[in-house]
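User: Reviewer 2 asked us to show a designed sequence for the structure in our supplementary figure. I'm pasting the structure tokens here. Could you produce the per-position amino acids so we can include them in the response letter?
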């Protein structure tokens, strides 16, 4: 990734700050992230610019997660696991995206939108997984994309609220996605 580790940490801290205190000023966000207001102002200028930068960064991180999961050739369950792990490694950005989401806020279907290309890649992955017999076929691939996103967002929010243990999140997500809430016979 082109963003340095310290910049990634700052962006995650700022994303968390916006989630925890949605109406926070730049000064309050700077304090929460451990930088000066002057630094934050120099880097982003305005709060709106910061939000735009975080949205752009989040879409790039999600694209990287999808690329690293090798959705076009990896065994589907392995790729699913990589998708889950990748998203959980950036849980702060997933929370930010969840808290910023409004039905009109992301161009999910606009041609040329970074979000559309990500959704298309996931839809194609789930269709390939269905064709290989790894995922159920009675639920459309686009719905599987949406369900995985909802499960990830729900788990990350449950962690934030102290209702889920982060150490087990990946396993729980994978099991819930693949098998639902039905008890498994071992």
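Assistant: Here is a per-position design you can include in the supplement:
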């Amino acid at each position: 990734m082109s963003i340095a580790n310290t910049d990634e940490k700052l962006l995650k801290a700022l994303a968390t700050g916006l989630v925890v205190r949605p109406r926070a000023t730049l000064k309050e966000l700077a304090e929460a992230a451990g930088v000066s207001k002057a630094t934050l102002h120099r880097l982003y200028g305005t709060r709106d610019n910061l939000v735009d930068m975080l949205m752009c960064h989040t879409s790039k991180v999600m694209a990287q997660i999808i690329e690293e999961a090798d959705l076009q050739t990896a065994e589907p369950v392995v790729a699913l696991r990589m998708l889950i792990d990748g998203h959980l490694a950036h849980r702060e950005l997933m929370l930010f995206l969840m808290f910023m989401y409004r039905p009109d806020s992301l161009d999910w279907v606009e041609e040329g939108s970074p979000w559309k290309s990500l959704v298309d890649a996931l839809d194609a992955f789930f269709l390939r997984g269905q064709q290989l017999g790894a995922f159920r076929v009675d639920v459309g691939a686009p719905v599987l994309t949406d369900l995985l996103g909802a499960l990830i967002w729900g788990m990350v929010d449950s962690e934030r609220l102290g209702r889920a243990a982060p150490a087990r999140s990946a396993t729980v997500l994978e099991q819930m996605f693949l098998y639902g809430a039905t008890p498994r016979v071992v």
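For the response letter, you might also mention the following. The two ends are 41 Å apart (CA to CA). The mean pLDDT is 90.
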